[in-house]
Amino acid sequence: IEGEKIYASKQILAVSSPVFKTMFYGDFVEKNNVEIELKDVNRKEFLELLRVIYPINRKITYTSAKFLLKLADRFQIECVLERIEMFMMDCECTNAVKLKTADEFRLSMLQEHCLSNMKTVQDVKSVEDSPYYSDLSDGMKAAILELIPTAGQ
Predict the structure, then answer these.
(1) Domain edge (last residue) among 45, 65, 90
(2) pTM given for the model
(3) In degrees, to the nearest 5, what angle opens at C-alpha 107 toward C-alphas 8 and 153?
(4) What is the mean pLDDT for each group of 10 consecutive residues in the chain (153 residues)?
């Protein structure tokens, strides 16, 4: 990655990611290679992903969650996606940020958590007024707007 070697266990990567499993054990050229070059991957971010995957279970932060989501989604690493989803439910960021993240990465538990916590018209309005609202899918916007009749009751 970025011209430097990173040593990692094929087995741990394959168990964690169907993308790596296919790459290492499927009918791909990489199967027989000792080294695999990953393009369009930031070295430091990938190392952080490895620290989360490996048994040490590194703590997820808001900063690391942003890039780990992209990497975990790209390599289909469900255990990391689930850990980040749980982290996001408890983080101090706004509902708008959480809903944007849930929408972008299809995190259904996070979406349900956010929507169920929006109990007032003001909660709905704060999401609608945020700069992230325009980035939400039509489906997410519809789910938010459906809350208005019940908000505050």
Answers:
(1) 90
(2) 0.72
(3) 155
(4) 87 90 82 81 92 80 93 92 93 94 96 93 93 96 84 54
